[in-house]
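Q: Convert this sequence to structure tokens.
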Amino acid sequence: MRYPARSQREATSALLPLATAALAAAIFIADMLTPVGVAVAGLYVAVVLMAARFLRSRDVVLVALACAALTVVSDLIARVAAPGAEGVVNSFTSIAAIAVTTLLVVQGQSAEVTLRDQASLLDLTHDTIFVRGADDVITYWNHGAEELYGWPAEEAVGKVSHQLLQTIFPTPLEAINAELLRAGRWEGELIHTKRDATRVTVSSRWSLQRDNDGGAAMILETNNDITERKQAEYLTGQVFESSPDAVSIVGRDYRYQRVNPVLERVWRMPAERLIGMHVAELLGTELFEQMSKPNLDRCFAGEDVTYSGWVPVRGGRYYSAISYSPLRPRSERVEAALIINRDITELMLASEALRAAQADLAHVNRVATMGQLTASIAHEVNQPITAAVLNAHTALRWLGNEPPDLDEARQALGRVIDNGGRAGDVIGRIRAVVTKAPPRRSRFDLNEAVSDVIALTGHEAVKHGVSVQSRLATDLPPVEGDRVELQQVILNLIMNAIEAMSGAAADDPRELRLSTERDAAGGVAVAVRDSGPGIDPQSEARLFEAFYTTKPEGMGMGLAICRSIAEAHGGRLWASANEPRGAVFQMTLPAEGAAAEPARQMPA
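A:
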């Protein structure tokens, strides 16, 4: 037990055995020299009591037997000198006193050992435990109290606890003591000051032991250090109240338990009205049942839920990114949901404006690219028109025969129709690329889109002496996206490759190879390889930067637009060196259904 008296007893224990032996010898001598009628042997009780100070129970019993033996020896010697019954009575009385004293001492030691063992168990806990009397004077101070507060037991025992610890109470001490006397216990939070003058917040529990009259005898006080928890709660509260986002806590009954000032401003209601309100009352039954309740239920099941979308509020709407986090304050069961609602309306409006500007810029880029293809376009349109005219003349000639050759004329007119259709297809492809229209996601065959672009640029390749080869995989899954935008990427890459090879020497190979294949992630990949001069290492890192160009008349927007289109479709676009020479531009796209979906329009 952590009492200062024990250390004092240990300091004097070295002298006690000598003093005890000397007292026993003195009593024995005095017993022999004293007349028979005087019961000097009864003083052996003092020897037993002294031995109990430094010996264990078994050894105390041995000392008691030794004292009884000395009493018997003294009695035998005394009978030889003065026979009689009086000495026997005195000896019996002395031995009885020794026996009774020994029994009491052994019982007392056993109780002390039990108490010491119990106290040692209290020293094992990290909690602070101390005992104080009705006057609040400390009588026991465990090891946990020493570690937390800094005072050793020798300095704490005997001090008034509230003065030593400079206790700050949540309510007046008189009210706390009244509750303690009434209920026999009290729990609350206290602030104590440690030996180094720092303060600590503790969760305190007081238990009262009453005396025979029902009053306060002793108070057992147990304290747990909750300083860090209180600081965390304070910081959490500050974050909750000061957050720029709308933060709320919703219970399993779908009612608001706590809201921060931002949520008050969003809904233009004070916290007093919002707390206790059902979410359906705020959003409306339809939106609650369709949107909010399913997400809350997923959160109550233990799932973290996030989504973004337009949220209707009084006086308008705003775009919100919302997260639900499950709260488990007392058990594994989710008791409430923490909802963090971030208003990103301005960001979304700016993003939409940027998207519109990018679409306009992409359209300008397509028109400019098509301007470079004027000769190719003219050739592509001219071929079927010229063929149609020749077939029309042929049909007239067959009709002019006598008799008219109707079968030959019919076949010639059929070829006119076919060539007209070819001309219409060419114009349709050109119109699809040039037309300014909002992005439209659809399911399409990437090989067909690539083939159309190859046909559109075929004459341009022939004009620059470029040999075009294609190797299109036959097992490609469909892709989902804006066909025109993705064709623009392929068109830009083909035109850049042709231009890169146009300055090559006459005897240098000019080969353009296009390929499609499945990629490792299950999507599709498109590669455009050329045999031109390759990529300058100094410009490679900036190749896709906006307004960066190595062309004298270039704007530096083509590749930047191409990369933004690829990334908007959930894909990638990058460049690397081709073997044995030239450059390769590769674009990957997710397969249909795997592309990133646009943000869902979901309210809070």
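The chain has a mean pLDDT of 79.
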